[in-house]
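Help needed: design a sequence for this.
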């Protein structure tokens, strides 16, 4: 495929890389994740107001830049290189597409311009820590079992005579859920016989809402536990017949392409840092990067990163392939970061070394959005690769 970037994509890449090199080094990242927001609000404001990052893929009619998923993928690759902690994924990758797809005209007019200018960040809350399932990445999300299935557990919505619906339940591993002023909460309504999953808007100041930031393996991807106890909410959309699971799957495909690009950026950065280290680290009177065995290992990882990049940008143009591209890119990130730790030698095994920032991102992303084998298995099942084999087996029996 043609992977040549457009002039606009080159401008996005260059501008972001220069800014993040200045403001988002490993020390700045560690400082940012320890703030109350879990990211640098000043840097986020600059990315939003000067570069229009959160509105990059939103239509100009809502204050966005009017670019597409491919341009947003370029931004994700660059933020991935720095492991930038920011609300970009939760807000622009997940919430904005759902609001655009399901929201009423009034909801879109109110929320999307504020997302585009960075003044509003959002978080998607689903029950059971099942974000990958809810987004249709590792299984069919149509049954709604991931949200509680209408039985006890999950998040339940009940109608009231006045004042709108009330939500009751809990969601864990909500990306940026501790700081976002607006939550999109997936909840079951209608009771078990006719249960269906809907999305509701919950404001940060709503009664009955409790949010607690969780300790996570990857501090650069802040997560929270969200508790709702008869919490007032507003239905996203104007009726309860919308195809919510379909909208979640569509948003999941786009988010998978963005996550794939982000993983490529992280892998490329880890590889660059490893190459720089082996050029300067000497053993037996020569740089260890001059040894043939080390060269071969780095060459293998370079090929892996380039192949992953090709898959990521193909998915950015064809989001239906997002899950498969994400599998390849997460695998590449895992392999490259493990090699980085190995080639840094004894210092690479110390938990405080910056190589572990990238290593922990690789492990955490597989836990959140994978694992790789389930992403591939679901992609194969969706494509019908095993249908013929099943039929032949049945005939043989």
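Sure. Designed sequence:
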């Amino acid at each position: 495929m043609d992977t040549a970037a457009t002039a606009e994509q080159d401008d996005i890449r260059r501008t972001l890389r220069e800014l993040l090199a200045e403001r988002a080094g490993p020390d700045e990242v560690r400082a940012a994740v320890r703030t109350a927001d879990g990211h640098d609000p000043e840097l986020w404001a600059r990315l939003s107001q000067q570069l229009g990052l959160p509105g990059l893929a939103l239509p100009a009619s809502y204050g966005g830049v009017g670019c597409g998923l491919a341009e947003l993928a370029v931004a994700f690759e660059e933020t991935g290189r720095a492991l930038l902690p920011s609300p970009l994924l939760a807000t622009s990758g997940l919430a904005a597409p759902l609001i655009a797809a399901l929201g009423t005209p009034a909801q879109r007019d109110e929320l999307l311009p504020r997302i585009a200018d960075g003044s509003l960040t959002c978080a998607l809350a689903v029950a059971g820590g099942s974000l990958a399932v809810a987004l249709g990445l590792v299984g069919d999300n149509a049954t709604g079992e991931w949200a509680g299935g209408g039985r006890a557990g999950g998040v339940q919505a009940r109608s009231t005579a006045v004042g709108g619906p009330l939500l009751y339940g809990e969601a864990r591993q909500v990306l940026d859920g501790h700081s976002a002023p607006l939550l999109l909460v997936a909840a079951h309504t209608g009771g078990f016989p006719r249960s269906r999953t809907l999305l509701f808007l919950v404001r940060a100041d709503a009664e009955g809402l409790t949010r607690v930031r969780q300790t996570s393996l990857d501090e650069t991807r802040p997560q929270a536990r969200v508790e709702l106890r008869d919490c007032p909410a507003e239905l996203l959309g104007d009726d309860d017949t919308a195809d919510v699971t379909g909208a979640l799957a569509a948003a999941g495909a786009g988010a998978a392409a963005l996550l794939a690009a982000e993983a490529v950026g992280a892998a490329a950065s880890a590889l660059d840092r490893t190459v720089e280290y082996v050029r300067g680290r000497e053993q037996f009177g020569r740089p260890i990067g001059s040894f043939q065995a080390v060269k071969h290992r780095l060459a293998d990882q370079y090929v892996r990163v380039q192949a992953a990049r090709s898959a990521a940008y193909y998915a950015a143009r064809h989001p239906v392939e997002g899950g498969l591209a994400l599998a390849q890119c997460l695998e590449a990130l895992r392999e490259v970061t493990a090699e980085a730790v190995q080639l840094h030698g004894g210092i690479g095994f110390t938990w405080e070394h910056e190589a572990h920032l990238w290593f922990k991102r690789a492990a955490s992303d597989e836990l959140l959005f994978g694992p790789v084998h389930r992403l591939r298995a679901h992609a194969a099942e969706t494509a019908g690769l095993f249908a013929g084999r099943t039929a032949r087996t049945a005939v043989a029996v």
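The longest strand covers residues 166-175.
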